Amino acid sequence: MINRLIGLLIDWLRRVGFTSAQSEMIADYAVWLAVILLALLTYFLTKWILLGLIHRVTAKSKTKWDDALVEAKLFKRASLLVPAYIIHLMTPLVLPEYPVASGAIRICLSIFMTLVAMFTFYSFLDGFNVIYQDFSVAKSKPIKGYLQIIKILVFIIIAIIIIAHLFGKNPLGILGGLGAFSAVLLLIFRDPILGFVGGIQLSANNMLQPGDWITMEKYGADGTVIDIALTTVKVQNWDKTISTIPTYALIENSFRNWRGMEESGGRRIKRAISIDMNTVRFCTPEMLDKFRKIEYLKKYVDNKEAELQEYNRQRNIDSSILVNGRRQTNLGVFRAYLESYLRNHPQVRQDMTFLVRQLQPSDTGLPLEIYVFSKEQEWAKYEDVQSDIFDHILAVVPEFGLSVHQQPTGQDFRALAH
């Protein structure tokens, strides 16, 4: 049919005054141009009609996988194969008198279709990754790094195929010759290879997941993991900046993952206040009477006083000397108050580590440490709970005859001068 069409066109051109050579050349290029126009028409029809139909069907469907493939441009990229294939198929039929040009055009079209097929496959992998994110296992087993490895391998294979097309060689022969360049390839793909190995270790040991809060001082990272790729891990810091960490660096260096805290249901409060040791003393009867009026201390003071009196009576302790026997101190009663106060605090976990303890005294006073867990894990709410607790503690310290130690200020020196 094509030959008949070319023959009719040549006859018409001869009749209008062209020579035989001119008529044949014009007819060949005219039919070639018609093939290109046919390919473009086919492409636009495919894009407007077929792709439009696919988009309407996917928009109405209840499944999400087809939407993911559409958003990844799978069908849009695949539609480019249609015009390229038509031109590739028709070229030797339209240009039989130009074997060199026909061969060059077919090689270029083969390369183009190979690249389109590669990017179409990339779109499929991207869509598959989006679909995979809907499964619960995706949080603990991200596959983005593995898909990027597949992309790299496909790219290498496509590059070999293209080189084989350009030089008319066997792709297997070119692949065998790459052994001599293995060292160069290892150098070029050093980061992807290290990232791939690091990604496997992170996944196999469940060391990192998207959404984990991590801190890594070496890279200035302190925030939430938002992406785990082949060569990099992206962390959105609390100040909304983005830190990029090489994947293999998470294996080579230490980092802190706060996932255990988040899964435990509590967030640690570990803070101390320094008590002025000069204000620590034995409790007098008047002080004990005052402490009995405090809601959280009445039972403690009575029970403790009865215990100490029984202890001293059994051992015939001379109570006229304060250092003899056992006596309550304002610091001990204060510690008991803090424990009772925290036991009754609605935002403190009672089923996790709970300590009110003294630390090693120093020239800055006697540290009294609170080591408990807040029910609130969200940063702002957690800080509110912690601040409320220590606001109260600092306010009640003087009620026990104690004072908080702090370095002298200019106001203190001015008071001494007067």
Polypeptide structure, described:
With 418 residues, the protein is of the alpha+beta class. It folds into 3 domains: 133 residues, no CATH class; 62 residues, SH3 type barrels (Roll); 151 residues, Alpha-Beta Plaits (2-Layer Sandwich), CATH 3.30.70. The chain is 59% helix and 11% strand. The strands form 2 sheets. Strands 4-3-2-1-5 form a 5-stranded antiparallel sheet. Strands 6-8-7 form a 3-stranded antiparallel sheet. A hairpin with a 4-residue loop joins strand 1 and strand 2. The longest helix has 41 residues. The N and C termini lie far apart (117 Å).
Task: Provide key terms for this protein.
8 strands, three-stranded antiparallel sheet, Alpha-Beta Plaits, 418 residues, five-stranded antiparallel sheet, 11% strand, alpha+beta
How do you describe this structure in short?
The chain is of the alpha+beta class. The chain is built from 18 helices and 8 strands. The strands form 2 sheets. It has a 5-stranded antiparallel beta sheet. A 3-stranded antiparallel beta sheet has the order 6-8-7.
Q: How many domains make up the coordinates?
A: 3
The CATH topology of the largest domain is given as Alpha-Beta Plaits
Number of strands: 8
Largest sheet: 5 strands, antiparallel
Order of helices and strands: HHHHHHHHHHHEEEEHEHEHHHEEHH
What would CATH call the architecture of the largest domain?
2-Layer Sandwich
Mean pLDDT: 81
Distance linking N and C termini: 117 Å
Share of β-strand residues:
5-15%
Radius of gyration: 40 Å
Q: Work out the helicity level.
A: 55-70%
* Strand-pairing-aware structural class: alpha+beta
Counting H and I runs of at least 4 residues, what is the number of helices? 18
Spatial order of the strands forming the largest sheet: 4-3-2-1-5
State the shape. rod-shaped
